[in-house]
Design brief:
single chain, alpha/beta, D-Maltodextrin-Binding Protein, domain 2, 2 domains, five-stranded mixed β-sheet
Length: 445
């Protein structure tokens, strides 16, 4: 692996929160409320200091059932109640309904509860939930969306706080079995969606058609700005960037030194990229696989990997070659919908999902479709098909934090109000750009 200064973008759908706090005074202290576990999720009491010479009374040993026994009884009761309901209804974003299939089957085998998982884009499913709840109809238990779709649901009070359903001790206690002790939240309020995935990898994916792209072409791409070279003009496609979703990669590109809004404008103006709809990951991947475009950038990762697994001529350049810097992203996770029709099944599914068993099932399910771009936030979960060279980088993060040397290796972006403000600003930026360039079909006011 090249010795290159890594660019690390931490997100809520997207951030390694609290990293800077461990790095010493040279880095600013994160200010986001999401950098620590919210008090409604795991309240703790601050002990009162004793006067000098006063010895604290010993803590009495609790009598009766142990905490483990009490939880076991609670868990068994929850399983029985979920089985009585018989099903849990999920709405998902992107290709999760396909890549999560095996994990959902594991849940059904273990607990005897059917998983009804929707298809469609995160934006479409968010529209559905909001429309139904607006009419007082509640058909959904668990929601998995990101970016702007998650923000719309949060702002509309369409979700149930995690404190109302989170009970599993190995999920509440992050001191063992997790890469980071902090609870990382994907939502702006820091109380609805706990992130579950950790990525160390490229700032943005670059995929290509192996039949149309030569090795000489690939050798020219050593930084994202190389995509502006005349050799690639008219050969690139990507999703429109003013979408409710997909804000993660946009924010990383926006904040990375040497890229930013100038690069994002130039990739449209100079490279003359073709645009697919904002939620068009499948269209992007299939277009590159079919030779309509030579390159597909900044989206469609899971769809590209599924096609690669089917032996179609697509490969990810940024998986085997470091282009510019690396980024790390914390994202993902599930939320309980407001007034779920199967509350016990939803509670069981959500707690199981964040356990070692649930996260292992998720990683193995996604790995069945080829190389994966992220691992679980749980450190006690299999690597799956996550690339070895990036896994090696990931192993260093806890030690870098402990040593206070993380700033020697990484440039850290925090998730805080400024981060969300940047994500909000990008939609107007791209609306204005698309108006200027005449991309009327992609303007979203």
């Amino acid at each position: 692996m090249q010795k290159t200064r890594a660019i690390i973008g931490l997100l809520g759908a997207f951030a390694v929160l609290g990293l800077l706090a461990a790095c010493g005074g040279s880095e600013p202290t994160p200010t986001s409320a999401a950098t620590a576990t919210p008090t409604d999720a795991a309240p703790t009491a601050t002990p009162t200091a004793l006067p000098p010479g006063v010895t604290a009374e010993p803590t009495p040993t609790p009598s009766g059932p142990s905490a483990a026994d009490a939880f076991a009884a609670e868990w068994a009761e929850l399983i029985a109640a979920a089985q009585a309901e018989g099903q849990v209804v999920l709405v998902l974003g992107g290709s999760d309904s396909r890549t999560g299939r095996f994990a959902f089957e594991d849940f059904k085998r273990q607990f005897g509860v059917e998983v009804i998982a929707s298809s469609g884009s995160g934006s479409d499913n968010a529209n559905r939930v909001l429309a139904e709840q607006g009419r007082g109809i509640y058909t959904v238990d668990v929601i998995t969306v990101s970016g702007g779709s998650l923000e719309r649901l949060r702002a509309a009070d369409a979700l149930t706080p995690a404190a109302d359903w989170l009970v599993h001790p190995t999920v509440l206690d992050r001191s063992q079995g997790w890469w980071l002790a902090e609870t990382i939240w994907s939502d702006r309020d820091g109380k609805y969606v706990m992130a579950d995935s950790l990525t160390v990898g490229p700032i943005g994916d670059i995929w290509y058609n192996t039949e149309n792209v030569t090795q000489d072409d690939l050798d020219l791409i050593n930084d994202y700005t190389d995509l502006l070279r005349p050799e690639f003009k008219g050969r690139i496609a990507m999703r429109a960037m003013n979408s409710p979703g997909g804000k993660s990669v946009i924010a990383r590109l926006w904040l990375t030194p040497g890229l930013g809004p100038d690069f994002l404008a130039d990739i449209h103006r100079i490279a003359e990229v073709d645009l697919v709809i904002p939620e068009g990951d499948k269209e992007l991947a299939e277009g590159v696989a079919n030779g309509k475009w030579d390159f597909g950038i900044f989206g469609g990762g899971r769809d590209f990997r599924a096609l690669q697994n089917l032996q179609l001529p697509v490969r990810e350049l940024t998986l085997t070659k470091q282009v510019g810097g690396l980024s790390t992203e914390i994202s993902g996770g599930n939320a309980m919908a407001k007034n779920p029709p199967n509350p016990n099944a939803a509670k069981l599914f959500l707690n199981w999902w964040y356990t070692q068993e649930g996260q292992t099932a998720d990683v193995e399910s996604v790995s069945a479709y080829g190389p994966i771009g992220s691992v679980s936030l749980r450190s006690d979960v299999t690597q799956g098909t996550f690339p070895d060279h990036l896994w090696d980088v990931l192993q260093n993060i806890p030690q870098w934090r402990a040593d206070g040397t993380i700033s020697d290796h990484l440039v850290v972006f925090e998730e805080n109000e400024e981060w969300f403000k940047i994500r909000d600003e990008t939609e107007k930026f791209f609306n204005d750009l698309y108006t200027e360039l005449g991309y009327d079909a992609f303007i979203n006011f």
